[in-house]
Design brief:
This protein is mostly helical and 149 residues long. The protein is built from 4 helices and no strands. The radius of gyration is 23 Å and the shape is elongated. The N and C termini lie far apart (51 Å).
């Protein structure tokens, strides 16, 4: 019989090197502020200011999140201004009120889905220590959005 014991065959588990996470809390805070803007609109501009003001001294992959967040705010504001202008134009030309209401509700629903989708992709990537692939994109940062992601 062999005199080797099971204790001799122990394996050592090496720790993976930790990623540079400087600024991760700031990025997470901005995502929470953006999600909170669904209920209280004032947290959206606060989140944009935080994302813009704390862009320095972060890990590079965190800066991709902060750029993505800043663009989320400004693209949403630009879309909101365009929808408001279209809504007013419908009033000026005398369109039926149901057309204006349909535009308003349709824009609000699309903007809500777009914002929540961008925040969802961003939080998922942030918690997995991954950068936003295309922070300047108009949709979801270059992510393929599936239920398996």
């Amino acid at each position: 019989m062999s005199s080797t014991s099971s204790l001799d065959t122990r394996t050592t588990v090496e720790q993976a090197p930790t990623a540079d996470t400087r600024g991760k809390g700031v990025a997470a805070t901005v995502y929470v502020l953006y999600l909170g803007s669904v209920m209280t609109v004032v947290t959206g501009p606060i989140g944009m200011l935080v994302a813009h003001l704390f862009r320095r001294n972060n890990a590079d992959w965190i800066n991709s999140h902060l750029l993505f967040q800043t663009r989320t705010f400004w693209l949403g504001a630009l879309g909101g201004a365009a929808a408001l202008a279209a809504w007013n134009l419908l009033g000026v030309i005398g369109a039926p009120s149901w057309v204006s209401w349909t535009l308003g509700y349709g824009f609000f629903t699309a903007c809500l889905g777009w914002t929540m989708g961008r925040c969802g992709v961003g939080i998922n990537r942030l918690m997995n220590n991954r950068a936003i692939d295309a922070p300047r994109s108009l949709l979801f940062g270059g992510a393929t959005v599936t239920l398996d992601d």
